Amino acid sequence: MSGQFEQLVLPIGTTLDRFINTQQSNFPFAKGEFSQLLRDIAIASKIVNREINRAGLANIAGSFGAHNNHGEEQQKLDIVANVRFTRALKLGGEVCAIASEEDEEMIDTGNHNGKYVVAIDPLDGSSNIDVNVAVGTIFSIYRRISPAGTAPTQEDILQKGTNQVAAGYILYGSSTMLVLTSGAGVDGFTYEPSLGEYYLSHPNMRMPSNGKIYSVNESSFAGFPPGVQDYIRYCHEHNFSARYIGSFVADFHRNLLKGGIFMYPESLKSPEGKLRLMYECFPLAFIVEQAGGKASQGGKRILDIEPKRLHQRSPLYIGSAEMVESLEKHLLLDRVRV
Ligand code: AHG
Ligand code: MN
Ligand code: MN
Questions:
Q1: Disulfide: which of 131, 157, 319, 332 matches 261 by Cβ 3.0-4.6 Å?
Q2: Is the same domain home to 232 and 271?
Q3: Which residues are in the CB-under-5-Å shell of ion ligand 2?
């Protein structure tokens, strides 16, 4: 009888807010600004989630008719998401500077007492919006380097990936999820739209150390480095599954759960790769390492790269540790060959 009763009123679980509060109490010197910053991001993501869900009805799907600093066509929702996140971060007061994919220059929020800086890809995979395919948001949080009370500098934002204090992504998929690390493992929260809250659904996420999924835009095969071509042949020979959505967050999330490797190599078409270091590679590299996986530039750990430019690109090989190591071995053979 009591078992039946329990079944009727199963607890929904821990809210993101409660989780953040509990984490903060593990750090006696934390003053709450960092927790507030995470809450600001969560609130903006709920608004963006709403916009994405009604995009087709609200005439906010499709192209905006302008290009961003990478020469890429901006979608209306790129702009909507950028405004929603940057506004929430400015109003929140904890962040002194923001680097966004959609803004050429670093944004000085005017909150010169803010201790943190944020790098963000407000809408990842935005060309998938019009066809109802999953998209995401990626963010990365650093402590500023310049003293509080002064204007932020480039140095505050151009920090190595190892300096990140937190990173996360939101996947607007068949359900909306927020996946977060602050350097003590990775936790996933699922959005419950009728309650308007994220609930802890995937505590302490661990990536399988090996897998059978490879994700790469193979149309550029002919221009890939020979080692990458060899590795892709190896994937074919071993009957791996090819899975490529074209939204980095969605491809990454699937591989995180199932085991796999995502690759965006340099190619003749994109000599530096396509993905951006500050707000695509660094945050997901931090998450993958915290979940037991690896992220490599080819010969070098992604998180150790010293960024020189806000919108710098990098080749990226990210996923299950053994798969990334195997890819690196294939690349090494390239060097022997030369
Ligand atoms: P964004 O929408 O933020 O510009 O990112 C698009 C990225 C990434 O999400 C995806 O993995 C990649 O572009 C796909 O590129 P290709 O079309 O060259 O495969
Ligand atoms: Mn992106
Ligand atoms: Mn984007």
A1: 319
A2: yes
A3: 121, 124
